[in-house]
Amino acid sequence: PFVHRVKFPKGRIVHAHSHPDDRTYTVLSVTWYKGWGNTYDTEKLTELHAGRFNTEHAGVPHIITKQDGEAVVQITGTGPTAVHYIDPAHAPRK
Fold it and tell me: What sign for the dihedral angle of Cα 32, 75, 70, 49?
């Protein structure tokens, strides 16, 4: 089992990616935006306000963004885990 608590700053976009494990996201502060599919489209984002949660199944491509202020999200699941970007050019540099 794992728990990640992550801060998403204003303007952050996590481009289309998936994970090999099921996970649950709980929005702890402000509003977080999530979309599904292989491309970033602001028209298809869902607002998840503080207190909301979302379950993501393994292998489902999704996009995450934070448009207005910093959000804190708690992510729980059972590993092993990884991030697989649809376009490897969007993977953060190490």
Answer: positive
Picking from 83, 88, 93, 75, the residue whose alpha carbon sits closest to that of residue 18 is 83
Establish whether the linkage from the previous residue to 61 is cis, with ω within 30° of 0: no
**Sign, Cα dihedral of 54, 58, 62, 66:** positive
pLDDT in tens, the chain (94 residues): 999 999 999 999 999 999 999 999 999 999 999 999 999 988 889 999 999 999 999 999 999 998 888 999 999 999 999 999 999 999 987 5
Inter-CA distances, 66 with 7, 22, 46, 49, 58, Å: 10, 22, 11, 11, 22
pTM: 0.89
